[in-house]
Design brief:
mainly beta; 4-stranded antiparallel beta sheet; 0% helix; elongated
């Protein structure tokens, strides 16, 4: 099931960083790619913000395996 993630009342959102980034296959120039995302967790951080962790998989059209796996970490301040 596809869903968009939306938070009400967020005054500031920060890309906090990436975990576990891997590039198992190359992406030639001109390739068509697509990204899938899976919500891993939503937790309250020590400073009162929400910490969101998302797994990303980037695939190249016609390739046997994905070209990138990454885990994004975000902070939302309400």
């Amino acid at each position: 099931m596809e869903r968009d993630l939306h938070f009400e009342g967020v005054r500031l959102g920060i890309n906090y960083g990436l975990n576990k980034v891997r590039f198992p296959s190359p992406v030639p120039v001109g390739s068509r790619i697509r990204t899938g995302a899976t919500l891993v967790s939503v937790e309250t951080a020590g400073d009162g913000s929400l910490q969101i962790v998302v797994d990303f998989v980037i695939e190249r059209e016609g390739a046997e395996k994905p070209c990138c796996f990454a885990q994004g970490v975000y902070r939302f301040y309400i």
